[in-house]
Design goal:
binds iron/sulfur cluster, Rossmann fold, four-stranded parallel beta sheet, Cobalt-precorrin-4 Transmethylase, domain 1
């Protein structure tokens, strides 16, 4: 049986940067707090916890004083920086540069659209850490659109500026934009509508969808390794199943079932999300090779 690890799967540069920062700090200090899971992969979180990383939530963060806290790749709203200043917390800011740029663009976009009495829209998952960080740039004066139903909340007679969470699908974003455009044209009765669209989807994720489909199609069995909380993990797994119905979602070796490996299975592909560590995919590949 031949086993192949997808060379394009694994951490994106934003996650690599955050983990490097954490490990670097932990070589100098016994403990380091991290605001939220550093990565949506419990196996990797556990590895870093064993080195001294302590995951905290926002309520626990408010209670801390005189310590160091790591901000993960998803970024944080301005409120977090304010609390850190008040409580003498040193922030180790590992916000992904792509997310920081988007936060900056949203701040500017909000100022511009407010001048013309318009609305700012973010296409993303409500309550997702990155989205919370983006919403915070506008003082919470933004409509988060998760699906078509949420579009009923907008006033189509007013200007609209839209941005997307970095990990949403390009197709989904295009669809939302085209519905808004149609509704604005109908409401305003003109073609040249005051609708500003911004392509803010991270290509580290979107480029993986076609690549993982191609990879999955090459194998008799596909093991997709990811944490269950990972948004891009869910979407990338769907790409695998679209291309190869014999794709299995696993978080670690314990999820592997021996009955998957019948005599017809000659090749197995191991792949994963942007939050899946390579060492975990390698561990799984080695385990399969022994079956
Ligand atoms: S997916 Fe893109 S935006 Fe998100 S952390 Fe990775 S590199 Fe940054």
């Amino acid at each position: 049986m031949q086993v192949e690890i997808d060379s394009k799967s694994g951490f994106c540069f934003g996650v690599v940067y955050a983990i490097e920062k954490a490990e670097q700090e932990l070589t100098e200090n016994a403990t380091l707090y991290c605001l939220g899971d550093i990565v949506h992969n419990s196996v990797e979180v556990k590895r870093l916890q064993d080195k001294g990383l302590i995951t905290i939530d926002h309520e626990q963060f408010k209670e801390l004083k005189n310590c160091k806290v790591l901000i993960r790749a998803h970024g944080e709203p301005p409120e977090t920086y304010k609390i850190a200043l008040q409580n003498n917390i040193t922030l180790i800011d590992a916000s992904c540069p792509v997310v920081l740029k988007l936060q900056n663009n949203i701040r500017n976009g909000y100022q511009e659209v407010t001048k013309i009495n318009g609305q700012l829209v973010i296409y993303g998952k409500k309550g997702h850490a990155e989205v919370n960080g983006l919403v915070g740039q506008t003082g919470n004066n933004v409509t988060v659109v998760e699906n078509e139903d949420d579009l009923d909340k907008l006033d189509y007679a007013k200007p609209i500026t839209i941005y997307s969470q970095t990990t949403k699908s390009i197709e989904g974003y295009k669809k939302i934009q085209s519905i808004i455009k149609e509704r604005m044209q109908a409401a305003l009765g003109i073609d040249d509508i005051p609708f500003s669209t911004n392509d803010t989807i991270c290509r580290q994720v979107s480029h993986r969808y076609p690549a993982i489909k191609e990879f999955a199609a090459k194998h008799d069995l596909v093991l997709f390794v990811s944490g269950r909380k990972s948004s891009n993990g869910k979407v990338l797994f769907k790409s695998c199943t679209d291309s190869n119905s014999n794709s299995k979602f696993i978080t670690d070796i314990d999820d592997i079932k021996l009955e998957w490996f019948s005599s017809q299975i000659k090749s197995v592909g191991v792949c994963g999300a942007t939050s899946t560590p390579r060492w975990l995919m390698e561990k799984i590949a080695k385990f399969i090779e022994k079956i």
